[in-house]
């Protein structure tokens, strides 16, 4: 699924000098970040620090004010306007999972996963359905294929959303607080699917407050505040021995909850 | 060529019919909604039937029943009085449903809290639930006023000299027949749009304030 | 009196029945045509470009702002003044179609707007084109959300079709009125006509209520 021709040394995703302004408020401030193939990057930081905006800029749900995004070696300059062709090319390589699942409630679970494959990749219905079933199997939901999303639990819906994104064979998966809307035990099913995905070598960027997940699964932990990366490194090191005062305050705040 | 002047001449009557029917409907609607929420099954069923009949029958048919059916027999009704009875009763039914919806929107806990405090039924409605329901009801009431303004054109058919009626006369007596109708359409839109604006404004404002 | 009333009703019923069929025909035709145009206007008036959106919204507001009776009389008595002449039946269909288009456009537009923004974002993130997102995600759900209101509107337009009596169309009210004029039994015949209208509108609104409850349960 990941691209075998990319050498491990070359980043699969590279972000250079990315900024996003809303009016005169800077939500993301000159962020640069290289992600290696197969790397799992966790991002933490206080609410409003620009984590979601950063993710949404990576697949151009928000158009960044300035910066350059390179996925799989193809750069996209994003100062202002991006062409429709570049946009689609980039989004095909980047999968996204939202906090609120955003499944299409009028379509069955199977159609949710198959429809984008047919429309975006041009797969036949049979091909798409076969791939969807394989993915549903993988996330443990084959029995839900013909249900509608409102009849599934939140944890099940989020696993379907992961399968839907994976079905387009992305190079990178982005997760924006995928478990925040879930009860803890439902969050665990989602985290275990994500863990399995990481073990299989998927490149992932995960915004999360699950500090255990970050320290067990992530290869790197990034701490954001005020739209900037204020600290990054090996997750256990950052968590046990933060170098920046704001990281320390933030970590103790989420531990106290 | 003074089509505009002629058609404008119907405006006061249109406004008078609309306002009177709305007033009648607003009051009788209270009676109907009280019946609709009565403890007695008979009263409840009767109120519901009246509301359903008045809302289900085309307004023009009801107006004809009042004017030609009832008002031309033993009792003589003037066109204006027939109009007010006809559209007033229909308004009552629609407004009763609007009131009922807004009462349902008030949280059950408010009734329970009022009961727990020992407030009587009347006090509960006038002091606790009513004021909260009114905020919810107002945008719907304004929307009904707009419908009523447009429905008031129907009373031209029984001879009340409002906009539609003077428009028809003007079209018939003058050679040009399109212009008076276009003017009439423009006048109705001009009269209705401030109300439409008000309704949208109130809806936004009241829903913001009502939000927890 | 009651037996003679029933006899009279039996005598009038065939004519009223014919009238009812005409009422249902103009209503059905106008609803189908108006709905198609209304869907088009709903999409135009949700368009990104203001150059497309504002003229569409303006036309819809004009259609909604004028009484249906004005629309009917404008088409039938007004348009001949500029050389466009219709018979009563097509004039009624044209007028009710325009009214339906204006109202349904607004109803559908509200339905489209009620589709959660997150789903559009998900469609974007999956790389679906805008047209695909509208076709597969927004329009099917928007229409479903709008369905009870659309059906409620259909009942309303059936009631409005009674106004076509004023163009001389022999629909239900027109038939009742001419029987009344011939027999001077206005009350009896109008009440019978009213009952026929109610025989359609009351079961129909009961169905709409049920549908509304079922859909809200399904979506919630
Ligand atoms: N669409 C928007 N318009 C204006 N401001 C926004 C928008 N989206 C996010 N912001 C602002 O950008 C900042 C970062 O938001 P966000 O990326 O959502 O933070 P996080 O995900 O870390 O909580 C916040 O101050 C937020 O208010
Ligand atoms: Mg966020």
TrEMBL record, chain A:
Listed GO CC annotations: plasma membrane
Main location: membrane
Domain named ABC transporter: residues: 13-251
Any one GO molecular-function label of the UniProt entry: ATPase-coupled polar amino acid-transporter activity
Catalytic activity, EC: 7.4.2.1
Keyword Cell division: no
Keyword annotations of the record: Amino-acid transport, ATP-binding, Cell membrane, Membrane, Nucleotide-binding, Transport
Keyword Membrane in annotation: yes
Catalysed reaction, written as an equation: a polar amino acid(out) + ATP + H2O = a polar amino acid(in) + ADP + phosphate + H(+)
Pfam families: ABC_tran
Compartment annotation: Cell membrane
Membrane topology type: Peripheral membrane protein
Family statement drawn from the similarity comment of this UniProt entry: Belongs to the ABC transporter superfamily.
Protein name: ABC-type polar-amino-acid transporter
Organism of this sequence: Aeromicrobium endophyticum
Automatic annotation (TrEMBL), chain B:
Keyword Cell membrane: yes
Transmembrane domains' residue ranges: 6-33, 53-74, 80-99, 178-198
Gene3D superfamilies listed in its UniProt record: MetI-like
Keywords (A to Z) from UniProt: Amino-acid transport, Cell membrane, Membrane, Transmembrane, Transmembrane helix, Transport
Biological processes, Gene Ontology terms: amino acid transport
Major site of localization recorded for this protein: membrane
InterPro entries assigned: AA_ABC_transptr_permease_3TM (IPR010065), ArtM/GltK/GlnP/TcyL/YhdX-like (IPR043429), MetI-like (IPR000515), MetI-like_sf (IPR035906)
Subcellular location, record wording: Cell membrane
An example molecular function term from Gene Ontology annotations: transmembrane transporter activity
Topology of this chain in the membrane: Multi-pass membrane protein
GO cellular component, one term: ATP-binding cassette (ABC) transporter complex
Domain ABC transmembrane type-1 residues, every copy: 11-199
Family classification: Belongs to the binding-protein-dependent transport system permease family.
Designated name of the protein: Amino acid ABC transporter permease
From TrEMBL, chain C:
Domain named ABC transmembrane type-1: residues: 20-208
Coiled-coil residues: none
PROSITE patterns xrefs: ABC_TM1
Claim: Lyase is one of the keywords in the record: no
Main location: membrane
Annotated membrane topology: Multi-pass membrane protein
Regions crossing the membrane: 20-44, 56-76, 82-103, 145-166, 186-208
Keyword Transport: yes
InterPro entries in UniProt: AA_ABC_transptr_permease_3TM, ArtM/GltK/GlnP/TcyL/YhdX-like, MetI-like, MetI-like_sf
Pfam families assigned: BPD_transp_1
BP GO annotations: amino acid transport
Localization, UniProt: Cell membrane
Keywords linked to the UniProt accession: Cell membrane, Membrane, Transmembrane, Transmembrane helix, Transport
GO CC annotations on file: ATP-binding cassette (ABC) transporter complex
Record-level Gene Ontology MF annotations: transmembrane transporter activity
Superkingdom of source: Bacteria
Family membership: Belongs to the binding-protein-dependent transport system permease family.
Protein name, UniProt field: Amino acid ABC transporter permease
């Amino acid at each position: 699924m990941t691209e075998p021709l990319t050498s491990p040394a070359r980043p699969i995703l590279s972000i250079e000098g990315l900024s996003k302004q809303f009016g005169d408020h800077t939500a993301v401030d000159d962020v640069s970040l290289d992600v290696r193939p197969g790397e799992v990057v966790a991002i933490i930081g206080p609410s409003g620090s620009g984590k979601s905006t950063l993710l949404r800029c990576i697949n151009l749900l928000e158009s960044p004010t300035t910066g350059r995004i390179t996925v799989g070696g193809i750069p996209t300059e994003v100062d202002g306007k991006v062409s429709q062709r570049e946009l689609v090319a980039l989004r095909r390589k980047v999968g996204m999972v939202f906090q609120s699942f955003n499944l299409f409630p009028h379509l069955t679970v199977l159609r949710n996963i198959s429809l984008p494959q047919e429309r975006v990749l041009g797969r036949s219905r049979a091909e798409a359905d076969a791939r969807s079933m394989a993915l549903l199997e993988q996330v443990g939901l084959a029995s839900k294929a013909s249900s509608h999303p409102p009849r599934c639990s939140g944890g099940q819906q989020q696993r379907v959303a992961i399968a839907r994104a994976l079905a387009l064979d992305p190079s990178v998966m982005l997760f924006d607080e995928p478990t925040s809307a879930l009860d803890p035990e439902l969050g665990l099913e989602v985290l275990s699917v994500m863990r399995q995905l990481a073990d299989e070598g998927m490149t992932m960027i995960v915004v999360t407050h699950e500090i255990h997940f970050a320290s067990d699964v992530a290869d790197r932990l990034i701490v954001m505040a005020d739209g900037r990366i204020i600290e990054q490194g090996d997750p256990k090191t950052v968590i046990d021995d933060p170098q920046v005062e704001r990281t320390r305050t933030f970590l103790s705040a989420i531990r106290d909850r | 060529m003074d089509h505009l002047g002629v058609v404008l001449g119907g405006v006061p009557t249109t406004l008078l019919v609309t306002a009177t029917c709305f007033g009648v409907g607003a009051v009788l609607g209270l009676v109907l909604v009280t019946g609709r929420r009565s403890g007695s099954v008979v009263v409840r069923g009767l109120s519901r039937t009246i509301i359903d009949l008045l809302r289900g029958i085309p307004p023009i048919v009801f107006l004809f029943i009042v004017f030609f059916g009832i008002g031309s027999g033993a009792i003589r009704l003037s066109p204006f009085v027939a109009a007010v009875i006809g559209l007033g009763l229909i308004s009552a039914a629609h407004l009763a449903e609007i009131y009922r919806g807004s009462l349902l929107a008030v949280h059950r806990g408010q009734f329970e809290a009022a009961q727990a405090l020992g407030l009587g039924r009347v006090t509960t409605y006038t002091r606790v639930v009513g004021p909260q329901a009114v905020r919810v009801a107002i945008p719907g009431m304004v929307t009904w006023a707009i419908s009523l303004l447009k429905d008031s054109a129907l009373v031209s058919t029984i001879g009340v000299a409002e906009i539609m009626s003077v428009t028809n006369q003007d079209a018939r007596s003058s050679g040009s027949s399109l212009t008076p109708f276009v003017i009439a359409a423009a006048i109705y839109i001009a009269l209705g749009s401030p109300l439409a604006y008000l309704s949208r404004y109130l809806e936004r404002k009241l829903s913001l304030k009502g939000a927890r | 009196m009651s037996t003679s009333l029933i006899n009279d009703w039996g005598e009038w019923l065939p004519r009223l029945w014919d009238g009812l069929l005409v009422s249902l025909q103009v209503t059905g035709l106008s609803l189908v045509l108006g709905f198609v145009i209304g869907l088009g206007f709903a999409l135009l008036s949700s368009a990104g470009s203001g150059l497309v959106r504002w003229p569409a919204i303006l036309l819809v507001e004009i259609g909604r702002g004028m009484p249906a009776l004005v629309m009917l009389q404008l088409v039938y008595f007004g348009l001949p003044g500029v050389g466009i002449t219709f018979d009563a039946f097509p004039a009624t269909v044209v007028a009710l179609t325009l009214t339906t288009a204006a109202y349904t456009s607004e109803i559908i537009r509200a339905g489209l707007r009620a589709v959660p923004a997150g789903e559009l974002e998900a469609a974007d993130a999956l790389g679906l084109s805008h047209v695909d997102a509208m076709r597969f995600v927004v329009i099917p759900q928007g229409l479903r959300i709008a369905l009870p209101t659309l059906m409620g509107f259909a009942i309303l337009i059936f009631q409005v079709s009674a106004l076509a009596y004023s163009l001389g169309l022999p629909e239900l009210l027109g038939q009742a009125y001419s029987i009344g004029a011939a027999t001077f039994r206005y009350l009896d015949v109008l009440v019978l006509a009213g009952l026929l209208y109610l025989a359609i509108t009351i079961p129909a609104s009961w169905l709409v209520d049920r549908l509304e409850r079922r859909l809200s349960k399904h979506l919630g």
